[in-house]
């Protein structure tokens, strides 16, 4: 019997990078996985390669109605939600291959980063929590960043979104404490070979972390019961040491 046998897990941003890698690992561990992102074809391609049961529900995390559909489809398909992995995220660096000082960031750019990285997490968490509360158990796993604990010039929107995510994680943990729901944040512990760093030269990309860097820690977090660790944030290797 595998660690996550029969667990019902939603992964946002599951079409590529960190999200895809975590979804693959969850499925290998026996979980039933809902894959969501905007790109239907990419999602279906990921689902087709997974060994376990999947539910593909394309959605923009900024769209409250679309988010609600993801949760509804998951509950219809699997009967509930055990873990929510809020992984979808964007940065101006990833979108434009360059950092931008605050004086140069447009309102639309700011809104895009904050809405995907923070509002999207709120919307998914808000929709998933009632199902977790009803069953008296659940895990909310938010993908953060080292920039959720420190700052960097030219990354104002991203830093603000991840600092906000750190606070939201703690609020979620406090509100779920008496209901059996854990909420924690996880980060890769460094730069990862995903689209955000696609602008780097090949030789530099070869030296950064692979997209599977968080898989083991994510499995350990999703496997936690109602009395698990909650309200904390650390890098993947720290989680592995703590929970492994």
Q: How would you explain this protein's 3D organization?
A:
The chain has 244 residues and is α/β, with parallel strands linked by helices. The protein has a single domain (8-243), classed as NAD(P)-binding Rossmann-like Domain (Rossmann fold, 3-Layer(aba) Sandwich). Helix content is 46%, strand content 14%. It contains 9 helices and 7 strands. It has helices at 17-28, 40-49, 64-78, 92-96, 107-135, 156-176, 202-205, 215-222, 236-243; strands spanning 8-12, 32-36, 54-56, 83-86, 138-143, 181-187, 233-235. A 7-stranded parallel beta sheet has the order 3-2-1-4-5-6-7, with helices on both faces. Helix 6 links the parallel strand 5 and strand 6 (181-187). Helix 8 (215-222) packs across helix 9 (236-243).
Low-confidence stretches: none
The CATH homologous superfamily is termed NAD(P)-binding Rossmann-like Domain
Mean pLDDT: 93
Q: Which bin fits the share of residues in helices?
A: 40-55%
Instruction: Output the CATH topology.
Output: Rossmann fold
N-to-C series of helices and strands: EHEHEHEHHEHEHHEH
Radius of gyration: 17 Å
The number of distinct β-strands equals: 7
| Shape, per Cα inertia axes | globular
């Amino acid at each position: 019997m595998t660690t996550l046998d029969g667990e019902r897990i939603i992964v946002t941003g599951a079409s590529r990078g960190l999200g895809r890698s975590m979804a693959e690992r969850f499925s290998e561990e026996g979980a039933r996985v809902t894959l969501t992102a905007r790109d239907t074809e990419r999602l279906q391609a990921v689902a087709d390669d997974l060994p376990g049961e999947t539910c593909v529900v394309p959605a923009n995390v900024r769209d409250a109605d679309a988010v609600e559909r993801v949760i509804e489809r998951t509950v219809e398909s699997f009967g509930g939600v055990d873990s929510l992995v809020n992984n979808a995220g964007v940065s101006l660096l990833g979108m434009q291959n360059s950092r931008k000082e605050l004086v140069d960031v447009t309102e639309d750019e700011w809104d895009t980063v904050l809405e995907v990285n923070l509002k999207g997490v709120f919307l998914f968490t808000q929709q998933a929590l009632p199902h977790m509360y009803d069953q008296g158990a659940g895990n909310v796993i938010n993908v953060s960043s080292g920039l959720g604990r420190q700052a960097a010039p030219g990354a104002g929107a991203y830093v603000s979104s991840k600092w906000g995510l750190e606070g939201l994680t703690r609020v979620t943990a406090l509100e779920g404490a008496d209901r059996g729901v854990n909420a924690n944040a996880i980060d890769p512990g460094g730069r990862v070979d995903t689209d955000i760093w696609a602008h780097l030269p090949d030789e530099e990309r070869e030296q950064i972390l692979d997209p599977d860097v968080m898989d083991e820690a994510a499995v350990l977090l999703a496997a936690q019961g109602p009395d698990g660790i909650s309200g904390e944030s650390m890098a993947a290797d720290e989680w592995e040491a703590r929970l492994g």
